[in-house]
Amino acid sequence: MATAAGIEEDCSVNNYGTLPLVQSKEKNDRHLVPVGDITDTLVKQIIWVRGRLHTSRGKGKQCFLVIRHQFSTIQAILAVNENVSKQMVKFVSSIPKESIIDVEGEVSLAPSPINSCSQKTVELQLKKACISLFVVSTAEKRLPFYEDAMRPEDSKESMPHMTQETRLDNRVIDLRTPSSQAIYRIEASICKLFRDILDAKDFVEIHTPKIISAASESGANVFQISYFKTNAYLAQSPQLYKQMAICGDFGKVYTIGAENLKRLGLSFNLEPERNREYKFPLYHSET
Asked: 10 Å Cβ neighbour count for 256?
C-alpha cells in the first residue's frame, strides 16, 4: 500500500526495532525457549527465542538468519509478504553480527537437513502477522573476530585463524566459541563428578587460602607476588589446612582449586601482566 506522499507504508512498524535499555520498569512475561530445546515437537507453534545473531544473509526480499545460544544454532527465514514489510527485511539484514536479538516465529520442519546448524530438522519462519524481531543489545559493526577464532591456531586451512595473543586480548569474544564453551563445561563436569563421589562418602568440602603471608614450601616452586605494599605467596598445597580440619573433627575433607602450575613442573609464566600462554585454569583435587 502506498501513502499520499508515494512512500510505501510499513505494515510491520510495530514488529521490529531496537529495544530500549532494560531498567526493570516493567515485568516482561515473555517465555523464551532455549535454542537447544527447539525440536520437532514444537512444529507449528509460535515461540520466542533469544540468542546472538551468528550470521545473516539478505537475498532480494528474503533474509536468512542463524541464531546462536551457547552451543546451539537454528536457522530463521524472513521474507516480504502481506505481513512483513521491505523495511523490516532491510532492518534485519543490517543488524551487526553477535548482537543479541529476540525473535518470535513459527517452528516448522526444514525441507532438507540444515547441516550448518545444530538444529538440523527445524527452522523458524517469520511470515505471520504476529511475528517480531527486536534487537536487545547491538554489537559493534566490526568485531575483532569470531568465526576465525573457531579455527585452531595450528590449522592448515588457508582461511584466517587467531593467535593465542589475539585471543587473550579479546577474551570475552573468544569465550563464545564452541571450543571455549566445551572446555569449561568439561571442567565443570569433572569437578561435579569428583564432588558427587566424595559427598556420597560423607566427605566435607573445604576452601583453603590461596594467598599466604609466607612460603609453605621451599625451593623453586615458591611464587612471590606483590600484595598491598608487602610480599605474599601463592599457596602451594592445602595440606596444612586439611590437617587442621582433621584435627578439628571434620573427619574426611577434600578441596578443589586452581593449581600452582610451577608445582606441577609445567613451564608456565603465571604473572598476569606477562603471561601470554596461560589460557585455561588447571584444577587439582585433593582428599
From this structure: 17
Q: DSSP states of 252-284 as a string?
A: SEEEEEE--TTTTT------TTT-SS--S--EE
Strands of 283-286's sheet, edge to edge? 204-205, 253-258, 283-286
Domain ranges in the chain are 16-137, 177-286
Q: Residue 278, Cβ neighbours under 10 Å: how many?
A: 16
Closest of 69, 87, 70 to residue 78, by C-alpha: 87
CATH topology of domain 16-137: OB fold (Dihydrolipoamide Acetyltransferase, E2P) (2.40.50)
For the chain, helix (H) and strand (E) counts, in that order, are: 5, 13
Find the angle CA(256)-CA(202)-CA(193) to the nearest 5 degrees.
45
pLDDT tens column, 44-86: 999 999 999 998 988 888 999 999 998 899 999 999 988 889 9
| Torsion 123-128-132-133 (CA) sign | positive
For 204-225, what is each residue's pLDDT tens digit?
999 888 888 887 766 666 788 8
Residue type present at position 256: I
Q: Is 6 left (phi over 0), alpha (psi -120 to 50) or beta?
A: left
Please state the pTM of the whole predicted model.
Answer: 0.72
